[in-house]
Write a structure and sequence with these properties.
The structure is a single chain. The protein is α+β, with helices and mostly antiparallel strands and 333 residues long. The chain has two domains: 133 residues, YerB-like (YerB-like fold, 3-Layer(bba) Sandwich), CATH 3.50.90; 136 residues, YerB-like (YerB-like fold), CATH 3.50.90. The mean pLDDT is 90.
């Protein structure tokens, strides 16, 4: 009887050991699977956010910012938006699309050489409608793939509820179709910015910034609930016509550039290669630093006062380019 009990006890111990082994194996498999999933995540180099797959090519679209073009559509889905001075005191938006789809983008507007330089740093598809003579001379050098609506109207449409030329639109789907139809270079490797959830340790409080473009004052106000900066134009919220959402930025970069007037139309030459002062606002603080770009085909990088590259907050970034005619203010100034 004692032998039977001993055997039963040994069997029980063996069963417990097997259960423990199986449980540990499953836990190890689960942990390994989670680690593999983390390693295999694909991050958007323009936002630091996870994407399902890398798109074929970045898209850089020239966006109209004439008062008759407002409100614009699709900028909520862009990864990076530049605001750049243009002739007549009216700025131009340049939107970078990569990680998200946008059913409507626009109004699309004309090209300038310095807008082409934005696209050139990522070997992007540059999308525009017409352009200055200097822009066409530049594009004919094949420095970047480009899609001009004047010769490619099938990839665009006009919104009849608006007056031309402020009514031209496209979409990421149509632009992907153009890339495939025309055999543009794909599989472009895009350099990433540095990303961090942590705010910079050495920074000053900055709940807002005001930028005085000749045509209109742009403001950003920090929203603690979302951890983002809300965008305003002439004191009114900037609302996307597509989704009705107010434009908001994880990062606001103010980049000081130099410009000169080229002709009687007031067209500008803006130098985006070289270096200059820059300011980064994120998480309610501001950090002063510099921007550097070594060549037209290299990416613009941003550094703090110690020479370390800025860590951007994952999410959308607005880059406010200002020349010598544009003033801006921060708290305490």
């Amino acid at each position: 009887m004692l032998k039977i009990k001993n055997k039963m006890f040994l069997c029980f111990v063996l069963i417990l050991a097997m259960c423990f082994f199986v449980a540990c194996s499953k836990e190890n498999e689960k942990g390994q699977s989670e680690n593999n999933a983390e390693v295999n995540k694909i991050y958007n180099p323009f936002t630091g956010l996870v994407v399902e797959k890398m798109p074929a090519k970045p898209l850089v679209v020239s966006i109209d910012n004439n008062p008759d073009a407002r409100p614009q559509t699709g900028l909520s889905q862009a990864d990076i938006i530049y605001e750049i001075p243009a002739e007549g005191g009216i700025s131009r938006y340049v939107a970078v699309f990569y990680g998200q789809k946008a059913d409507v983008i626009g109004p699309v507007r004309s090209s300038r050489p310095y807008i082409i330089d934005v696209a050139r740093q990522w070997d992007a598809l540059f999308v525009h409608a017409g352009g200055s003579n200097d822009a066409y001379v530049y594009l004919k050098k094949n420095v970047v793939d480009y899609l001009d609506e004047i010769y490619n109207s099938k990839y665009f449409w006009r919104d009849k509820s608006r007056e031309a030329p402020h009514n031209l639109y496209t979409s990421t789907a149509l632009l992907a179709e153009a890339i495939a139809d025309k055999g543009y270079k794909t599989g472009v490797e895009v350099e990433a910015y540095v990303w961090s959830e942590e705010a910079p340790a050495f920074a000053e409080p900055a709940a807002w910034v005001k930028i005085y473009y000749p045509s209109a004052k742009v403001e950003y106000e920090y929203d603690e609930a979302s951890g983002l900066y809300l965008r305003y134009l002439k004191g009114d919220p900037c609302l996307d016509k597509g989704d009705g959402e107010q434009w908001k930025a994880a990062n606001v970069v103010v980049q000081r550039v130099s410009s000169k007037v080229l002709d009687s139309e007031g067209r500008l030459e803006i130098n985006l290669v070289g270096s200059g002062k820059a300011w980064l606002l994120r998480d309610g603080v501001v950090q002063e630093g510099t921007w550097k770009r070594t060549s037209p085909d290299s990416m613009t990088r941003y550094y703090d006062s110690n020479g370390n590259e800025w860590s951007l907050k994952p999410g959308q970034t607005w880059i406010q380019m200002i020349d010598q005619s544009v003033k801006f203010t921060l708290p305490g100034e």
